[in-house]
Amino acid sequence: MTYCVGLRLDAGLVFLSDSRTNAGVDQVGTFRKMTVFEKAGDRVMVLMTAGNLSISQSIRQLASDYVSPDGASIWNAPNLYEAARILGECVRIVHTREAKALQEFGIEFNVSIIFGGQIKGERCRLFQVYSAGNFIESHNENTYFQIGEAKYGKPILDRVITPASSLDEAAKCALISMDSTLRSNISVGLPLDLLVYRADALAVTRFATIDESNQYFQMIRSTWGRQLKTVFDGLDNPAWNTASNGATPVRIAPPHADTPAQSSAPLQTVAQQFGDGQQ
Fold this sequence. Notes:
About 35% of the residues lie in helices and about 25% in strands. The protein has one domain (about 5-220): Aminohydrolase, N-terminal nucleophile (Ntn) domain (Glutamine Phosphoribosylpyrophosphate, subunit 1, domain 1, 4-Layer Sandwich), CATH 3.60.20. By secondary structure, it is α+β, with helices and mostly antiparallel strands. The strands form 3 sheets. The protein has a 5-stranded antiparallel beta sheet with strand order 10-1-2-11-12, with helices on one face. A 5-stranded antiparallel beta sheet has the order 5-6-7-8-9, covered by helices on one side. A two-stranded antiparallel sheet has the order 3-4. Helix 1 (about 55-65) packs across helix 2. A hairpin with a 2-residue loop joins strand 1 and strand 2 (about 10-15).
């Protein structure tokens, strides 16, 4: 499994992905999930994938090479929407080619994609593409997308990120989101790829691969845990005052002592009567 998060802000875009594909006692696979399509001065597009690795790699390769009958590709698409549409078409091509054979071996066609960036002449955009090749776009009401093991890292994003967040704030929040996921799920693991794109740069502005030796991420991991504990300790304990509200739990009464246990005799009697009727 994996965890990827992409954030669309007024200031630009932030992408973060882990690199674990298999988790077990004696088998851990590491494959990078982030791919950059860059034509400096014209477009920067970032692709992150979760799901079946062979499907993801096939889609990534096809997307980089694909040219439609009318000559359209992600390299000449006039806007990110058209680039996302072409990516969705690549997903459907791979599905047509691979899904039936996979199904015969009991393997589901499973892929999730975050795709975003900027093409010259338009704003930064961010999309989530599904296994059917359909997609949705991020707007101000939902300024980020997650794929893979998303639930552990979602609360911090919901509480902190807004379109007005700075790129540094968003990168920090994404790393905390990733740390929460690493802490709770063994199927997500280091190293991480972090890409920060400043709006209108039309080139990758900041990129880092983060492993166990990265001092900033280690600071995030230790400091965030301590600060959470400090905030927790600063909250008042519950005030138990049951006399004021009269609340009571739903209770099941125990059986009365003078009530004999239910016997199976009536059923036997019915069975006997039925049997007698058959004679």
